[in-house]
Specification:
With 305 residues, this protein is α/β, with parallel strands linked by helices. The protein folds into two domains: 11-100, Alpha-Beta Plaits (2-Layer Sandwich); 109-302, Vaccinia Virus protein VP39 (Rossmann fold, 3-Layer(aba) Sandwich). The protein has helices spanning 23-34, 63-79, 95-100, 147-159, 177-185, 197-209, 243-248, 250-254, 270-282; strands spanning 11-19, 39-41, 48-55, 87-93, 109-111, 115-118, 131-134, 168-171, 190-194, 216-220, 234-240, 257-269, 286-293, 296-302. A seven-stranded mixed beta sheet has the order 10-9-8-11-12-14-13. A four-stranded antiparallel beta sheet has the order 2-3-1-4. Strands 5-6-7 form a three-stranded mixed beta sheet, covered by helices on one side. Helix 4 packs parallel to helix 5 (177-185). The chain is globular.
């Protein structure tokens, strides 16, 4: 265990490093232990993910708690069939570190000439005709850095036709980044939901910050409990979900896609993609594009006209 103990005063950053295949399980472990979903950072070209929670002085973990967390991580890595030793870092942050520690990681991202995503501290200016989404890293997924989010954003840009009205649905909104980007690109109506009330709250706050709150409707909903049939269907639907959920809830997802609409599925481990791809193609969809990045693979599908 690589651990650097802080003094028990001030804010500290507890960071664990896990394979990207164990990112969700590691995040769930930290949430269960510290009651907050970690911020996640994946370096381009790396198969590792750094997961961080930020803890005030009265929540700094003790040595026995760190030892217990190490044991849990070791068990997690064995389940992931990895033999790497757990990496845990506990770092005391000065006030200026808290304000600026993430700035070196989160840089502006351009999705072609149509969309710019930037953190609030960036001074990069948009090009003519380029929509801008301002989003800082927080406790929910989605800053555009992750390969699955990036694929969805690129498909949103690719699919947008300036001379057509197009609707958009985001299943599992996380930080709200896809819905906000869709509104900025001119999709309407824009709808998004998530089973996690905190994600809905964060998404709504991010939409207000980007001044598109009147153009998006966020709501708390569980895909598994939605009506099997839907009176509303959308031109573009993004579902950034686990492979098993994408398969089990395919009828609910597909009934919310217009014919011939675009369905973008992401959040899929590369080893599981062929199973998901075969399932959706067997339902009549045609795969348009797929992208592999690190441990992740995503796909864009369309119903035949």
């Amino acid at each position: 265990m690589a651990t650097r103990l802080s003094q028990r005063r001030g804010l500290c950053q507890l960071q664990i490093t896990v394979p990207q295949t164990a990112e969700e399980a590691g995040s769930a472990l930290l949430q269960a232990r510290f009651a907050q979903w970690p911020a996640s950072f994946c370096k381009p070209g790396s198969d590792q993910a750094d997961l961080s929670v930020f803890l005030p002085a009265d929540q700094h973990p003790t040595r026995p708690q760190l030892a217990h967390l190490t044991a849990e991580l070791s068990a997690l890595l064995r389940l992931d069939r990895r033999e790497r030793r757990p990496q845990i870092r506990l770092i005391r942050l000065a006030d200026r570190d808290w304000k600026h520690s993430w700035k070196r990681h989160f840089k502006p991202i351009e999705m072609g000439r149509r969309l710019l995503l930037r953190p609030s501290w960036s001074r990069q200016r948009a090009k003519p005709g380029q929509a801008v989404v301002v989003l800082d890293p927080g406790l929910s997924f989605g800053t555009g850095q992750h390969p699955t989010t990036s694929f969805c954003l690129r498909e949103l840009v690719r699919a947008r036709r300036r001379d057509h009205a197009q609707s958009f649905l985001d299943i599992g909104c996380g930080s709200g980044i896809l819905a906000i980007a869709a509104a900025k690109l001119g999709y309407a109506p824009v709808r998004a939901f998530d089973h996690d009330p905190e994600s809905v709250r964060v998404s709504s706050a991010n939409a207000r910050r980007n001044r598109v709150q009147e153009r998006i409707r966020f709501r708390e909903a569980d895909l598994c409990k939605l009506p099997a049939r839907s009176r509303e269907a959308y031109d573009v639907v993004c579902a950034n979900l686990l492979a098993d959920v994408l398969i089990q809830e395919a009828p609910r997802i597909l009934r919310r896609v217009k014919r011939p609409g675009l369905l973008v599925i992401a959040g899929i481990l590369r080893a599981e993609f062929q199973r998901v791809n075969h399932f959706y193609r067997s339902r009549g969809l045609r795969i348009l594009r797929t992208r592999v990045e690190g441990e992740w693979q995503s796909g864009a599908y369309r119903f035949p006209a």
